[in-house]
Amino acid sequence: MKSWAASWPCSRHVDLLINRRAAGSTRMPVVMKGELLLLSSVVFLLGVACGCPEECRCQTSLNSVDCSHQGLAEIPPDLPPQTLTLHLQDNQIHQLPASAFRSVPQLTTLNLGNNSLSLLAPGAFHGLQHLRVLNLTQNSLHSLESGLFHSLPQLRELDVSSNNISHLPASLGERWENLTLFAVQQNQLQQLDRVLLESMSSVKRLFLKDNLWKCNCHLLGLKLWLEKFIYKGGVMDSVICASPDTWKGKDLLKIPHELYQPCLSPSPDLESWQGQLLGPAPGAVLRPPESHSVKEQDQSECELKPKPRPTNLRRALVTVIIAGVLSGILCLMMLVATIYGCTYAAITAHCREAPLAQTLEPAKTEGKDLLDSPPA
User: Fold this and answer.
1) d(CA 375, CA 365)
2) What are phi and psi of 243, to 5 degrees?
C-alpha cells in the first residue's frame, strides 16, 4: 500500500516532509514513531484524494477506478498509473484518440459500454499489453479497423454487441490466440469471414444472434465452422437468417448442406485477356467492362435457393406409388383374365366332350348288338 500511495503525484512532497521529520527524531523515538504513523496515514489519504480524478472513485486495495455515470466526454487525463480496472461506462465519450490509455499501462479490464463511441483511432489501445477484458457494448460503432486490436496480445474477452457494425475484416483477429469470448450480437452483420473465426484458436463462447445474416452461399463457410465449433464443445447462441425470404427466420445450422449452391468465383474476362496478348482481331468490336448490374446479377445467382432435388424426390415417390398401384391392378386384371380363360376353356372342352360322348354311345351300342346277335 505504501508503493501505491507513493505513486500518487501530490504525495511526494509530504513523503519528503516525513523523511526530514524522521531524520530529526533522535531524541523522542517513541513519540515520533506515533507521529510518523499518523502522518503516514494522513499522507496516504491525501494521496488518494489528490491522485484520483474528481469525477472518479478509486479503490486502492483493488487498483480499481470507477468513472461511470459522470457525463464524461473524454478519458480523464490524470488516471493513477497503477490502475488495473477502469470503469468508463454510461458516459458521453464520442471518440478515442491514439494512445488514449497511455497513463494506465497496467490495465487488465476496460469497460467503455453505453457511451457514444463512433470513432476509434487505429492506435487507441496502443500500450495495453496486459489488457484481458474489453467491453465496447451499446455504442455507435459502424466498423472496426483491421489493426485496432493488434496491440492487445493478452485479450481474453471482447464484447462489441449492440452497435451498428456491418463488416468485420478478416485480419481483425490477427493476434487473438488467447481470445476465449467473442460477442457481436445485435449488430448489422450479414456475413462473417471464416478466416476471422479461424484466428480465434482458443475461443470457447461465441454470441452472434440478432444480426442481418444473409444465408446465401457465402455463409456456408460460417456454417461449417460453427458445426465444428459446437462439435468440439464450444458454446454459442444462434444464427437466424434475415434473408433471403426462403430462409427468413430459419436457423443457419438447421439448413441442410445440399441446399447450398457453390459461389461463383470471379474470373477474368478471357476475351479481353486474349485481346491484350494478341491484339484485337480485325473487325472485332471491343466490349465495355462489366457493369455493376451484371455483378449484382452474378451475386443474385449466388443466392441460397432450394434445389429441385426435394421436389423431384417427392414426385419420384408419388410416381413409384402410382406405378405400384397400377401394376397391382394390372396383375389382378391378368389374374382375372387367366382365371376367366381357364374357366372358359374348361367349359368349352366339357361342352365339346358331351356331344362326342353321346355320338360314341350309339355306335358302341350298335356294335355290341351286332356282336351279340347269332349268325344266320
Assistant:
1) 18
2) -160, 160
Longest CA pairwise span in the chain (Å): 194
Question: 320-345 pLDDT, tens per residue?
Answer: 889 888 888 988 898 888 888 888 88
Contact at 8 Å (CB) between 87 and 134?
no
Nearest of 238, 235, 210 to residue 222 by alpha carbon: 238
Cell of 251: 436457423
How confident is the model over 260-319, as pLDDT tens digits? 766 765 544 434 444 444 444 444 444 444 444 444 444 544 544 454 444 456 677 788
Quickly count: other Cβ atoms within 10 Å of residue 167's Cβ. Answer: 15
141-173 residue pLDDT tens: 999 998 899 999 999 999 999 999 999 998 888
| Other Cβ atoms within 10 Å of 111 Cβ, number | 21
The x, y and z cell numbers of residue 180, run together, are: 476465449
Per-residue model confidence (pLDDT) at position 50: 52
Q: How far apart are CA 284 and CA 274, in angstroms?
A: 13
- Measured CA to CA, the distance from residue 176 to residue 261 in angstroms comes to 32
Closest CA to 124 of 79, 154, 80, 94: 94
* Half-sphere CA count of 237, side-chain side, radius 13 A: 14
Q: Residue 366: what pLDDT? A: 57
> Are residues 263 and 217 in contact, defined by beta-carbon separation less than 8 angstroms?
yes
Give the Å distances, CA to CA, from 119 to 68, 105, 145, 182. 20, 22, 10, 20
Over the range 124-157, which residues count as b (16 or more CB within 10 Å of their CB) and which as e?
bbbbbebbbbbbbbbbebeebeeebbbbbeebbe
User: In sequence order, what are the residues at sequence separation of 6 or more whose Cβ sits closer than 8 angstroms to the Cβ of residue 79?
Assistant: 53, 56, 65, 86, 101, 103, 104
Query: pLDDT tens across 37-60, in order?
Result: 554 444 444 444 457 999 999 999
**DSSP tag of 199:** T
Q: What confidence score (pLDDT) does residue 38 get?
A: 52
